[in-house]
């Protein structure tokens, strides 16, 4: 019973969470927490951090242990024949079971700067991956905000259609009264009926668009696709006061995550060249070994017991000739650096174009909002006048339908323009390198 109540409570809480109206900030929190792309990106950050530790561990002493057991075939004992003895003198019986244990310590003293360069490259790559992770979060936030505002746009369109349908149904009821009193023709009444049917069809299509927009929104925030989520949006204000192209471009060149990431990778490429050049230098290691063997080969004569010995020394290894292996590695590292440097320059050009396009798009959307506001004001006034004339039978149902249609079209365009301006503003902020979450 307790388990049943607990499950019901969890399901009730879950359904309530899915049915509540989500703000933009709440949508971002939920979506970013559920984003699989962000989780994948975070795993790359952890993997890159582990690579630093992997290379760093090679700079430290390495302690290894080895053990073995060998069974040897039986051989005659070691005997010496001397003239004074009629029989050979046995020096030593063979030891058929050998046990060996070895503890080794090795410390690199000089590797031609290979390890230090590789560690520096790994640290720079880690910084690049961290910046790329931030970029992925920003990209996910943009998808969530775009889905949020497209859902809002569809909801607004449905509200306008419902208002238009309600108004038409009222006109249809009034016109029916006019027809009963002989003030309008049956044709006027039928025209309003046809228009009402058209708007009902429009409502069906708009409701479908709302459902599709809700599905897209649910997907971006990690909810089940059929969740009946609802949203509430802040007031939209198409303001351009804070935007200046030159300032935006300078900010983008300084703040874009892609540029930061490639900048780190350029520096990492330089360290990789240094690591490849390590092949021209010798490698020097300090080593020490501790042996515990039975028998121990360093003790003569060999005896069937465990004895310990040790050694310590310095080793040097230097490739004097390797058929161009080192020079090939250096060339590869140099060409990878050239590739990244050119990608960096291409990206800068792409960022400049992207910022400019988004800035022009923002100006265009701002102008559309202003024009559509005027169009709505004109359509509202035209509808008011036409409605008054129709009520006094000074205009036809066709005039009223035209005024209704013009008003609905103007209101829809204004709503869409306001949302498009908001999405474009978010896109411009993202292209500049600002955090949009």
Layout of SSEs?
Elements: H1 2-19, E1 21-22, H2 24-34, H3 36-57, E2 62-71, E3 78-80, E4 89-92, E5 97-110, H4 114-180, H5 186-221, E6 230-231, H6 245-255, H7 257-276, E7 283-294, E8 307-317, H8 325-391, H9 397-432
Parallel strand pairs: 1-6
Antiparallel strand pairs: 2-5, 3-4, 5-7, 7-8
How would you describe the overall organization of this protein?
With 437 residues, this protein is an alpha+beta fold. It is 66% helix and 13% strand. It contains nine helices and eight strands. It has helices at 2-19, 24-34, 36-57, 114-180, 186-221, 245-255, 257-276, 325-391, 397-432, and strands at residues 21-22, 62-71, 78-80, 89-92, 97-110, 230-231, 283-294, 307-317. It has a four-stranded antiparallel β-sheet with strand order 2-5-7-8, with no helix packed on it. The longest helix is centred in the middle third of the chain and has 67 residues, at 114-180.
* Strand order, sheet with most strands: 2-5-7-8
State the share of residues found in helices, binned by percent: 55-70%
Report on the biggest sheet: 4 strands, antiparallel
Number of helices: 9
């Amino acid at each position: 019973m307790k388990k049943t109540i607990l499950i019901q409570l969890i399901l009730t809480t879950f359904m309530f969470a899915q049915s509540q109206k989500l703000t933009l900030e709440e949508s971002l929190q939920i979506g970013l927490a559920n984003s699989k792309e962000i989780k994948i990106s975070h795993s790359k950050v952890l993997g890159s951090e582990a690579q630093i530790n992997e290379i760093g561990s090679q700079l430290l002493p390495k302690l290894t242990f080895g053990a073995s057991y060998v069974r040897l075939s039986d051989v005659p004992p070691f005997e010496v024949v001397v003239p004074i003895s009629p029989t050979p003198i046995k020096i030593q019986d063979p030891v058929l079971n050998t046990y060996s244990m070895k503890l080794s310590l090795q410390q690199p003293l000089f590797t031609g700067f290979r390890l230090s360069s590789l560690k520096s490259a790994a640290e720079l790559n880690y910084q690049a991956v961290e910046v790329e992770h931030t970029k992925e979060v920003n990209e996910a936030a943009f998808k969530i905000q775009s889905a949020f505002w497209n859902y809002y746009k569809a909801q607004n369109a449905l509200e306008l259609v419902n208002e238009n349908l309600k108004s038409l149904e009222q006109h249809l009821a009034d016109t029916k009264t006019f027809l009963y009193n002989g003030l309008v023709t049956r044709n006027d009444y039928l025209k309003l009926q046809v228009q009402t049917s058209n708007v009902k069809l429009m409502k069906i299509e708009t409701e479908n668009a709302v459902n599709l927009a809700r599905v897209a929104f649910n997907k971006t925030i990690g909810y089940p696709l059929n969740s009946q989520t609802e949203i509430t949006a802040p007031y939209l204000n198409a303001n351009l006061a804070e935007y200046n192209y030159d300032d935006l471009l300078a900010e983008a060149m300084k703040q874009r995550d892609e540029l930061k990431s490639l900048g780190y990778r350029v520096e990492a490429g330089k360290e990789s060249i240094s690591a490849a050049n390590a092949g021209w230098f010798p490698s020097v290691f300090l080593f020490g070994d501790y042996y515990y063997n039975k028998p121990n080969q360093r003790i003569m004569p060999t005896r069937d017991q465990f004895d310990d010995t040790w050694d310590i020394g310095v080793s040097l290894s230097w490739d004097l000739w390797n058929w161009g292996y080192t020079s090939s590695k250096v060339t590869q590292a140099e060409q990878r650096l050239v590739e990244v440097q050119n990608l960096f320059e291409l990206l800068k050009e792409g960022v400049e174009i992207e910022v400019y396009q988004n800035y022009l798009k923002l100006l265009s959307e701002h102008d559309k909002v202003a024009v559509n506001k005027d169009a709505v004001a004109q359509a509202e006034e035209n509808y008011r006048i036409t409605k008054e004339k129709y009520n006094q039978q000074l205009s036809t149902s066709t005039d009223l339908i035209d005024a209704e249609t013009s008003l609905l079209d103007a209101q829809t365009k204004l709503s869409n323009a306001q949302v498009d301006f908001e999405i474009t503003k978010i896109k411009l902020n993202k292209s500049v390198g600002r955090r949009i979450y």
